[in-house]
Amino acid sequence: MQTVLFNETIFGPVRSRRLGLSLGVNLSPRDGKVCTFDCLYCEAGYNAQGPGTTGLPARAEVARLLDERLRAMAAEGELPDVITFSGNGEPTVHPEFAAIVDDTLRARDRRCPAARVSVLCNSTMLGRPEVAEALRRVDNAILKLDSALTPTLRALDRPASPDFTAERAIALLEAFGPKAIVQTLLTRGTHDGEPVDNTTPAELDALINAYRRIRPREIMLYTIDRRTPEQSLQRIPADELREAAARISSATGIPVQVSA
Length: 260
Ligand code: SF4
Description:
8-stranded mixed beta sheet, 7 helices, binds iron/sulfur cluster, alpha/beta, 34% helix, TIM Barrel
């Protein structure tokens, strides 16, 4: 079992494959994980490790720590390219997520106006108007859709809600509108003796149909990069990712960014 990735509320900066020099905001506990999914590939480990003891960070504490870190980075002459909400779980489950987004946008405007604000989100909370509105206010709302086929989505992402289907995810993303950037992690392997694979032609066809409905401004295709809780999962070769990206972009007309 892996332990949590980030033991701070404001972490990094880290050089991200997808985002550049990224200062992280972790709205989950510093010693546990809270997520509405329990993905087989989650770099923060499985939810079974528990939520820890520190609780979710308070809004005022997040604002104070972020301001402190941005001032320190400015003093060192290295400002972030992006402030990224990610961390040990799903940021949008924080009850003050929308207010924290607004605090963060103000801090960005004050301390590093050239930086973008990104949120890595698993899409499960998009049905809450205040969450969707807050995500529309950030520069990059990067919203997960790993499969357009319910059995695969449920096997790979393991949503906590028994009602969360691929159709539900697609409908939420479609309603979110054209500011969405959809992120899809491609992998294959087995779990509990069952194959898990979102790279087959049928999977890509279903994803293409879903992207056509959602019409995001961009699609991000990527694969696993670090050790995953389900260790049978494979990193997809760069050539295969690029081939999938070419097929998706030619079928949908939507730009596809590949992080290999
Ligand atoms: S949605 Fe993100 S944080 Fe949640 S289990 Fe999946 S990879 Fe981990």
